[in-house]
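User: Hello, can you help with two protein structures?

Assistant: Certainly.
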Amino acid sequence: MITLQWSTLVLATATLIGATLGATANIVWESWNKRKKRDNLRRAIWAEMMTVRPYLAGTFGPEGQFLRKTIYENNADDLTILSDEEVEAIVAFYGHIINLQAAVNQSGDESFERNNAFAEAYMQSDVRVWFNHAVKQLYPHVDIDDGLDEVKIPGPAPM
């Protein structure tokens, strides 16, 4: 017959419970951090994409100001935390706008004329389609026909 001491049984049970709680807390914490990082990246990409709005409206941005792509470039490796559909839409949008911007930059126009040429070329390209697609992938509830200035992007949902 095996004799167990109560202290050994209590210690083993407490260790098992502690390990289970610790592992569960770690999984929840990692999941929350990943969700927070994904939401922050989504909002940052959205904000950067909104710098194109003057061109969407057929107006010019400030002289010499083209699409900002710093957030996209600095977080390209992290895009994989977004859904496949979001990544596809974001990469397609930035790819089209970067190619269009490069073509305008090669035209040799002065700064303001380059903005004008960029806006005209933008309006005649399919970049608008990719912009709309990316917006719908990032925030499906946003109606892009509404005034985008009024759109409020929600923060991360509480756990």
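That covers the first. Now for the second protein you mentioned:
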Amino acid sequence: MLHHNRPAYPGINVTAARAITARVAEAATVLITPVTLDGRTLHRVLLLDAAGAEVGTADAARRALRLLREAFPAADWSREQLAHLGRADLTEQRYPAAPIDLGLDAEGGDR
């Protein structure tokens, strides 16, 4: 699947990245996905190693979310975010909703 990503917040935050890797040394990325449940938005947080395997505990994931929200306050937390700990940056993940040829997205419209 192609990603159309953009920086979620200008700059980097080395302090947050170091704080996360201090708790879970093997963590390479943090994937934060908003989930709506009973009208409330919660966040599913996955700490992933370089191979994409989940690492760390639920407590470490909650702490990572808190650190990243504090480090990147202007990020759109209603969208999926990916923190690259080695680069100490946060990227908003954007996925195309449907192929444009289907005419289902707002840009393509009905043809």
